[in-house]
Design brief:
Rossmann fold; binds ligand C2E; TIM Barrel; 14 helices; alpha/beta; binds magnesium ion; five-stranded parallel beta sheet; 2 domains; eight-stranded mixed barrel; 22% strand
């Protein structure tokens, strides 16, 4: 393991070297500027390399350094150091992940040895993960068309539970491609393709059919659940979409109010009037409409003003870590407040840990969906999961 410390302040260099040595780190190289470090790096490009870099430096600053590291495809780990406020470090953190750099964390000056130890532990723990990261494959429209025709498209379902009662009220249907060679392929690898290739409407109809059939099967087992299906607003161009959905509902005997369409807007809408026409008619048919990923991209207040939504899902970017990060919490609370004032059901997405859970329980948000409650699962597993969850919820509530 080779460690580089980059900081324009000689005192910080000396201090950090001493702290790292105490923690058993050996091969340490110090640089008073990013330029020298960058010419040294090509010789030590390995996953075991660790770079500790200051943000505020004359010459190449820390943000530029991130860009350079991204360009050369630096494979090691990175820790950012700064005397700047938390918000700058957070933004720098986003830039680092945007460059696909393995950022372990950020350190405030003066640096506590305990925090430094934490970073070293992460560095050692993360190495196998990086090596195991599977390569992503690009699929063609022909392959996707074949998948649709041959029934390789399936859905997993993730619970949406009521925070106050623990009740399992709904599930979100998440599409998966059961690929004959590549295994389970996730939607971020084929939804954009489906949209570009004009296959998204066909895909939505398959997902809808699978989801309604699954809801019917749960119903027979005594489990009444609302089912949420994702539709991108850009795909709402065929004006008979509501009629086709109504027909699918009739065929399965699921009441329209038990279906929720989660609407996102990924690109610029081609035909805004058509989308509004379709959404209004879906509401007239009593189908639920949810604004998904609220607060990101185009999914924002203007949409909330114009579309008769019944539910608002706060994006996980404002949920996970909301307890400790002021910006996230503030946006979470503003979104929640707007939804409540408009009489919408509220769902927090992406709760991952106990801190998120505790925060949400106290927040007044109605429902939660996230890995902390459950990962998405195959439909037949849902009844057993529901029983186990009821048990877990009572211990969670008793504990807090
Ligand atoms: P989404 O609608 O916001 O769905 C939630 C995504 O977040 C799912 O990813 C889910 O597995 C993931 N998730 C849930 N809880 C957590 C958590 O606690 N932490 C983290 N990090 N992630 C969590 P998935 O299944 O990969 O789906 C990604 C996106 O693909 C969905 O985002 C949705 O926009 C899109 N998608 C999925 N199925 C369909 C579909 O049938 N049609 C369309 N048009 N889009 C779909
Ligand atoms: Mg969704
Ligand atoms: Mg979402």
């Amino acid at each position: 393991m080779t460690t580089l410390i980059i900081d324009d302040d000689p005192f910080t260099l000396k201090l950090l070297t001493r702290q790292l040595t105490t923690l058993g780190v050996e091969d340490i190289h110090c640089f008073e500027g990013a330029e020298a470090a960058l010419s040294f790096l090509p010789g030590i490009m390995a996953a075991t390399t660790l770079v500790l870099c200051d943000l505020q430096m004359p010459g190449i600053d820390g943000v530029e350094m991130l860009r350079h590291l991204g360009t050369i495809g630096y494979p090691g780990s990175l820790v950012l150091i700064s005397g700047e406020d938390e918000r700058i470090l957070q933004t720098a953190g986003l830039l680092a992940s945007g460059q696909a750099l393995n950022l372990l964390g950020t350190l405030h000056k003066p640096i506590a040895t305990e925090r430094l130890r934490e970073m070293l532990l992460r560095h050692h723990a993360q190495r196998p993960i990086i090596q195991a990261r599977a390569s992503r494959k690009a699929y063609t429209a022909a392959e996707l068309r074949q998948a649709l025709a041959e029934g390789q498209i399936t859905c997993h379902f993730q619970p949406k539970v009521c925070l106050a009662s623990g009740r399992l009220v709904a599930v979100e249907s998440l599409v998966r491609w059961q690929h004959p060679q590549d295994g389970l392929v996730y939607p971020d690898q084929f939804i954009p393709l489906a949209e570009e290739a004009g296959l998204i409407t066909a895909l939505t109809e398959v997902v809808l059919a699978i989801s309604l059939r699954q809801a019917q099967a749960w119903q027979k087992q005594g489990l009444t659940l609302s089912v949420a299906v994702n539709v991108s607003m850009d795909s709402l161009v065929t004006l008979d979409f509501p009629d086709r959905i109504a027909r699918a509902l009739e065929e399965t005997g699921i009441p329209p109010s038990q279906l929720i369409l989660e609407v996102t807007e990924t690109r610029l809408m081609r035909d805004r009037l058509a989308a509004l026409d379709i959404l209004a008619r879906l509401r007239l048919k009593r189908i639920g409409l949810s604004i998904d990923d609220f607060g990101t991209g185009h999914s924002s207040f203007a949409q909330l003003r114009d579309v008769p939504f019944t539910e608002l899902k706060i994006d996980r970017g404002f949920v996970h870590h909301a307890a400790t990060e002021t910006a996230r919490r503030t946006i979470f609370e503003a979104s929640l407040h707007a939804a409540q004032e408009l009489g919408l059901k509220t769902v927090a997405e992406g709760a991952e840990d106990q801190a998120d859970w505790d925060f949400l329980r106290a927040s007044g948000c109605a429902m939660v969906q996230g890995f902390f409650v459950s990962r998405p699962m195959p439909g037949p597993e849902m009844p057993d999961w529901a029983a186990a969850w009821a048990q877990r919820y009572s211990t969670l509530v008793a504990g807090g």
